[in-house]
Write a structure and sequence with these properties.
The structure holds two protein chains of two kinds.
Chain A lengths: L2 H16 L5 E2 L2 H18 L13 H4 L6 E6 L4 E11 L2 E5 L5 E5 L2 E6 L7 E3 L12 E9 L5 E20 L2 E14 L2 E10 L4 E9 L3 E7 L3
Antiparallel strand pairs in A: 2-3, 2-13, 3-4, 4-5, 5-6, 7-8, 8-9, 9-10, 10-11, 11-12, 12-13
Chain B lengths: L9 E6 L2 E6 L32 E8 L2 E9 L4 E10 L21 E13 L7 E7 L9 E11 L2 E10 L36 E9 L4 E7 L5 H6 L9 E9 L3 E8 L3 E10 L40 H13 L4 E8 L3 E8 L5 H15 L6 E8 L2 E2 L1 E6 H7 L5 H8 L1 E4 L8 E2 L6 E14 L6 E16 L2 E13 L19 H7 L3 E14 L2 E9 L4 E10 L6 E12 L30 E12 L4 E9 L5 E10 L5 E9 L3 H4 L5 E9 H5 L6 E6 L16 H5 L4 H5 L8
Parallel strand pairs in B: 16-17
Antiparallel strand pairs in B: 1-2, 3-4, 3-14, 4-5, 5-6, 6-7, 7-8, 8-9, 9-10, 10-11, 11-12, 12-13, 13-14, 15-16, 15-21, 17-18, 17-19, 19-20, 22-23, 23-24, 24-25, 25-26, 26-27, 27-28, 28-29, 29-30, 30-31, 31-32, 32-33, 33-34
The chains are: A alpha+beta, B mainly beta.
């Protein structure tokens, strides 16, 4: 055995002994590792927890839906899910997908996600168009977790950068909306949000920043 | 923060049918790189800079006859440590002793281990360079021993210059003077001693280098080395050192791997690979898993007074119903409700958590489930995590706070400031208890790997096979657990040279345990855990406790939940198991074989009393100290000191030393027991929820002195995650 090989073997040794090895059985912890492997592999293949490649939605398909229903799209992961309202707490509405991923909105503005990994833990967010003074900047706080599970607060400064009439199509219905672009900055990081507000003042569609790893989420309101 | 986006990629290595993914460090162009010793440096010389705090790196470098593999850790922002395994080929080829070489000349490849420490004295400023002082191979046989003082300064953002002064082997070429007196000859004895009388003594020589970052990926380096390679090139002629100048080109692959190619000492081509990990980063950026149940607040008492009635308390089956409801809400999280007690306005829920790595998250999930399913009149939540039947702490929080703070930006901090965490005794007036879950049997079959590192012949031997594990929980706190292993592919039965021993072969016969124990009963034991008082825990284990010993092990631990210290005592009476690791305790004479001139026989059975008094202290800055004083397996008496850096997310990297009344010469190579421990939570590697961890101990020399019984499920590590400091270190996860 040559030395180079042996040296490589030492690295492999360190890794094997730390290495997670797949197992079967009814032991929750051991099988969790198997599940972890499966999902790691799945993520690599581009699949994932939520349904990607959602079938083309039609209004007929939505006809049976009773409660509030949103279509959410995680841009970076190319994943989509339908979410329904499950709870309301002090003006915040939480929506859940079938596989237990949730988003929470306050007046249409994203204030939390759960089950997505690098979740937005909380945010103090208001609709940019309801602010008294248009123009000018306004503060917004985001609560995140770092890789060491410590709460990190991001104090952002946001401002409305553009307002324009735009029509958007959401599952075969075209809405005439005002598109409001908002730009925020915190600790040298910039991110943009957009809201499409219809004439009744309802946010029909939005694209909002979640967290550094997840990036942005698109939320479309599927109610008529 | 700006670079976090790139930090979630991970390095995947397929190993032994499994896969390991490590979270990777964000790298900037200016990140200091590593040298061929795996320490922050230029090519073969060190530099004045350090790695980012907490960085863990594995480096392997090869040039000519020399190979080095190094594990380095940035212990604090200023202090770093390295552990290295060195191999030099052609060690005895050109010295004319063949074929009758003796002593250290008997090896054709010379292997050695070494430790370094490096301390950064000054940070780089506008005019001030980064300045570090270092000790290379400062303990042991000192083949690589050298000391240095070195400064590095960026001239432009892309170009930096290093200049330093070296002693020892770093002062062996082009030396100027002997500023601090003569260097006494090295007297390593059995190795493993601090060679402090040598440090910074003898000839000193300057060295230096430049590093030019062409772009984010490529770096060019050049240096002037003050290492004359007296032993390797001069005396043993394993290669020819023609020039002090070295040149290199390095490529950064993503954030996790750095590769280098070099032209060294005017005659040699070298290569290096560095693997970079950051324990502070999580694969995928965060733990995935089902979302918690969202909170729907209770209607106010004035809006619906009936709902706030406490009459439900009198209902006979209320306890069973409430426990079942909670259980079904928590089932997806791997949380099992073990008991519920209540009066009209408060409820205590005791639960076990099988899956969630952050204990605070398990508390949060339980609080949410209680808010979602208990009658409105219950305002006070008393949440008690239970481990192996032992309640650890009681977290008291108000339901209205849970309702009010669910979406608050600093909700975790606020609820913690309003929570109480106290010690807890046995449950009182239990309304409903989980008895249907017992006996509970869990089992798993999976791949298995066994390693033997650093035996005297080759540094690495391994076997891969299958293991079957089973665990029967007879009642809360009473369990039978076992593990059987069978190897499929293995080179563990290649016999290494076995040095002489002066003590009972409590560990040094491990080759015979590897060879004869296949299949093996790794352990099979009955364990009983019991809480003796609100702050005192107890354990008794009986059976085949570990690979090499069986018997009885008893332990008590005094651990107040809201202090940072704990004190424990353990007393064991054990017999050494037969190397075949079946049921017997008979020791064959074969296992006493050595290659030395000493005695090759021993007793046919070995029984001993071993035990320790242990003190534990968890410092606020993330360091954890443990001191064990007592009698070890070979009957030697002494103490072990361990120091770990513990990251809140569960990574633990540490070192330990054990000194007993066995003299250095009786101990053998290494003089005393010491090593490095690394523990990685699996959740950090995959971003999924599991409480599993992988840990490894690297011992440069495994001998018989200072060896402890390796019994499973010692109390402190079992329960400490649920004491106050364990619960609050990841409190950000409460609302996750």
């Amino acid at each position: 055995m040559g030395t180079i090989l042996e040296m490589r073997a030492i690295i492999a040794a360190a890794i094997v002994s730390l290495g997670a090895l797949a197992a079967c059985g009814n032991d929750k912890e051991a099988s969790d590792v198997t599940a972890a492997l499966r999902s790691a592999a799945g993520a690599k293949l581009g699949g994932g927890a939520s349904a990607s490649g959602m079938p083309n939605l039609t209004r007929e398909m939505l006809a049976g839906a009773t409660g509030p229903l949103l279509l959410i799209t995680l841009e970076q992961r190319n994943q989509q899910a339908l979410v329904v309202e499950i709870a309301q707490n002090r003006g915040v509405t939480t929506y859940s997908s079938e596989d237990d991923r949730t988003i929470s909105l306050r007046d249409g503005v994203l204030v939390a996600t759960r089950g997505l990994g690098d979740d937005l833990m909380a945010a103090s967010a208001q609709r940019p168009d309801t602010r008294v003074s248009a123009g000018g900047s306004y503060p917004r706080q985001y609560g995140l977790l770092d890789g060491n599970d410590q709460a990190v607060r991001l104090d952002a400064t946001c401002s409305v950068t553009a307002r324009a009439a735009e029509s958007v199509e959401i599952v075969q219905i075209i809405y005439e909306t005002t598109r409001i672009d908002e730009s925020c900055e915190a600790n040298g990081r910039r991110f943009d949000n957009s809201y499409w507000v219809d004439r009744g003042g309802q946010i029909r569609k939005s694209r909002q920043w979640v967290s550094p790893t997840i990036g942005s989420i698109v939320i479309e309101d599927l109610r008529r | 923060m700006a670079r976090r986006r790139s930090a979630h990629r991970y390095l995947a290595l397929a190993v032994a049918g499994g896969m390991v993914a490590a979270p990777i460090m964000a790298v900037s162009q200016g990140r200091p790189s590593l040298n061929l010793y795996g320490a922050t440096g230029v090519i073969d010389m060190p530099s004045g800079e350090s790695q980012p705090d907490g960085a863990l790196t594995i480096s392997t470098s090869h040039f000519g006859p020399i190979s080095r593999t190094t594990l380095s850790f940035q212990i604090t922002p200023r202090l770093s440590g390295s552990f290295r395994f060195l191999g030099i080929r052609d060690w005895n080829k050109n010295i004319g002793c063949l074929p009758n070489c003796t002593g250290t000349d008997q090896f054709d490849i010379y292997y050695d281990r070494s430790f370094d420490l490096k301390y950064q004295i000054f940070d780089e400023g506008r005019y001030m360079p980064a300045v570090s002082v270092g000790l290379q191979d400062f303990v042991g046989t000192g083949v690589l021993a050298g000391e240095y003082l070195v400064a590095t300064k960026h001239v432009t953002p892309d170009l930096k210059v290093t200049a330093g002064l070296g002693w020892g082997r770093l002062g062996s070429y082009g030396s100027l003077a002997t500023p601090l007196g003569a260097r006494p000859p090295l007297n390593p004895g059995s190795g493993g001693n601090f060679n402090y009388d040598q440090w910074f003594r003898g000839q000193a020589a300057p060295f230096g280098g430049v590093e030019w970052a062409i772009n984010d990926q490529w770096t060019l380096k050049a240096e002037y080395s003050s290492d004359n390679y007296d032993e390797e090139a001069g005396k043993r002629k394993t290669f020819e050192r023609k020039s002090p100048f070295n040149f290199g080109l390095e490529y950064q692959y993503r954030d996790s791997v750095r590769l280098g190619a070099y032209y060294l000492y005017g005659s040699q081509v070298g290569i290096a690979a560095h693997f970079l990990m950051n324990p502070k980063k999580r694969a995928g950026g965060g733990v995935q898993g089902p979302a918690p149940s969202a909170i729907t607040p209770r209607p106010s008492r004035s809006a619906n007074p009936d709902l706030w009635s406490t009459e439900w308390v009198t209902q006979n089956d209320a306890g069973d119903i409430l426990r079942a409801n909670l259980d079904s809400r928590l089932n997806d999280d791997g949380i099992k409700v073990r008991s519920i007690s209540y009066n009209g306005t408060s409820a205590e829920v005791r639960f076990t958590n099988a899956r969630i790595d952050a204990e605070a998250q398990a508390i949060g999930r339980t609080a949410r489930a209680m808010a979602g399913s208990l009658p409105a009149s219950v305002e006070q939540f008393e949440i008690v995590p239970v481990v192996n039947g032992m309640a650890v702490s009681k977290v008291v929080i108000l339901r209205s706070d849970v309702e009010r703070l669910e979406h608050a930006v600093d909700g975790a901090e606020q609820i913690l400031s309003r929570a109480q965490i106290v010690s807890v005794g046995a449950a009182e007036s239990v309304a409903s208890r989980d008895s249907e879950s017992y006996p509970a049997f869990t089992w798993s079959i999976g791949p298995y790997a066994r390693l033997r590192l650093f035996d005297q012949n080759t540094p690495f031997k391994a076997g891969i096979g299958l293991q079957a594990k089973g665990r029967l929980e007879v009642a809360p706190g009473l369990l039978i657990s076992g593990k059987v292993t069978k190897l499929a592919i293995s080179n563990l039965d290649d016999r290494p040279p076995i040095p002489d021993r002066k003590l009972q072969a409590v560990r040094s016969a491990n080759y015979f345990y590897d060879k004869l124990g296949d299949p093996a009963i790794d352990h099979l034991a009955l364990t009983y855990y019991h809480k003796l008082s609100p702050e005192v825990y107890g354990r008794v284990s009986l059976g085949y406790l570990e690979r090499m010993f069986g018997g009885i092990s008893t332990e008590v631990l005094w651990m107040p939940t809201n202090r940072r210290w704990a004190v424990g005592a353990e007393l064991n009476y054990v017999a050494q198991r037969s190397p075949d690791q079946q049921f017997g305790f008979k020791l064959p004479q074969e296992m006493y074989q050595t290659d030395g001139p000493g005695i090759e026989s021993g007793p046919s059975s070995y029984r001993t009393v071993t035990g320790h008094i242990s003190g534990y202290y968890s410092f606020e800055n993330g360091f954890h100290a443990q001191v064990d004083i007592g009698r070890y397996l070979a009957g030697d008496v002494g103490a072990t000191v361990s120091l770990k850096r513990e990251f809140e997310n569960g990574w633990k990297i540490g070192a330990f030393v054990t000194k007993t009344n066995v003299s250095a010469s009786n101990f053998g190579s290494g003089s005393f027991d010491k090593g490095i421990t690394i523990e990685v939570p699996v959740s950090m590697l995959f971003g999924t929820q599991t409480r599993e961890t992988r840990s490894t101990v690297l011992r440069p020399f495994g001998r018989d002195g200072g060896q402890r019984l390796e019994v499973d499920g010692r109390l402190y590590e079992t329960v400490r995650g649920y004491r106050e400091s364990g619960l609050t270190e990841q409190w950000g996860r409460f609302w996750k």
